[in-house]
Write a structure and sequence with these properties.
Length: 524
Amino acid sequence: MKLNRKSIYALLVPALLLSACKEDFIERPSLSGTTTGNYYNNAEEVRAATSTLYSGLPWRNYESRAQDAIGDVMSGNMFTYTDTEYLNFSVSSASERIGAAWGAFYKIIGYSNVMIKTFEEKKAAGGDASYLDPAIAECHFIRGTLYFYIARTWGAAPIITDPGATALSGNFNIPRYLQKDVLRFALEELQAAEAGLPESDVPGRLTKYVAKGMMSKLYLYNKDYANAKAKAEEVINSGKYTLVSDYTGMFTKMSMNNNSESLFSIQHQFAQDPWGTGNIKNPDRGAGALRTSEADAWEMYVPSLDILKEYEFGDLRRRWSIMEHGWTNPSWKPQRANAPKYNAFMANGFKYDTLQPTEDGGSLSPTRSNITKYFAGPGKSFGGEPVLGQNSGNNVVLLRYADILLIYAEAILGSNASTSDAKALEAINRVRSRAGLTPRTSITLDDIMHERRVEFAFEGDYWYDIQRQGFTKAKAIIEKQNRGTTTNPTYVSNFTADKMFLPIPAGEIVQDPELGKEPVPYYK
């Protein structure tokens, strides 16, 4: 078989690595042409290499649209006219988003594989373990996290840890392994990360508490409530994390990157080149009324009618996450050339208005709402954060402290119908208190799932919360949702068990027919 596969092959022999960037945290030299003899001779060189695993460039094809389509459109949190197959569960193996996510995940795994092998070789040749071991642990965390994502997205999937050995063997017919084995492998990777990562590091870098946090999420997915509780409790008791007061700022302000609530984030730079260095969610979410000469905004994804119904009365997260009629931001004063009515309407600050004509500054999305999360505004000249066309400098958060608190509450609940446990209530009510809501005196699984949905809306997570409840519950949730527009209510009637996981990309199966066969055990 010719070595022409696009993503599995990227896993086997990636072109390591990426070009240098300007920010200290992301800065790294190109590693092409280096050897263990002439490089990785100090902590700075090694940390520069592993910082690539956090950067926006390799994650771009997942976080830009695939994360939205899979996590929020498919779950019923978002409406779109673009990724309609995720709205109506007609996703095929030819889907662009599936291929993009698969390619991104396996490319980053490929980087991790090569780094682990390279750093181990450097150690064997006398390299300093004091900085090589933490770097190896970083790679294990990234590899474990990505296999966790892969197992939840596709179920059974290939696992590769030694790209060199696979290439030398000449056998590229790689099978899918059972989902339970992919999850076990992911857990073992996170355990290795926990053992090797430091107690603390500079903001944004991985620590053993980040590994504990991701492990708690994986344990919860596996319904291992005792271990989920234990790991979440270790993170809580560490005292290293808090809930921030500026909820919106977590997603829209560069100054809040790597804040005290963030455990693990994709690290972005405010840059237009190379493409993907910056956060490019901005235009897909921004209201068209906020498009200016500095900021693109074409509202590809908007809140669903169903998520609008989910918020309790008085929940501050609604206006922190969603723009609706009457929503304002007085500091945003977008202006446009040759648009006197628009400019007059916006002169005293942005107003989200569904009555004003769109050409004059009104907003008339299919659900009469737009997404605030990850929209940085109309540009610095117009009172917003700095924006370069489609690019902002906001990190994309993949794990935050609010998740740990809700994992902890759910792990205490376990398989019980309800609980009034004081620690579980304290955890969930801390999240609710920030949102301006009254505390609960007892909780059920439905209470926790409601809290998770509104807390993490538009962060790419809700599909996995639906999925992990099992097919019967998932079907009931999906079929109750209005997935249409204000003028065209739409409901799903074709949700079957095979929709619980996404299909393997068609191109991958063509090049590796084993991927189209039944999965096999990874552990003998």
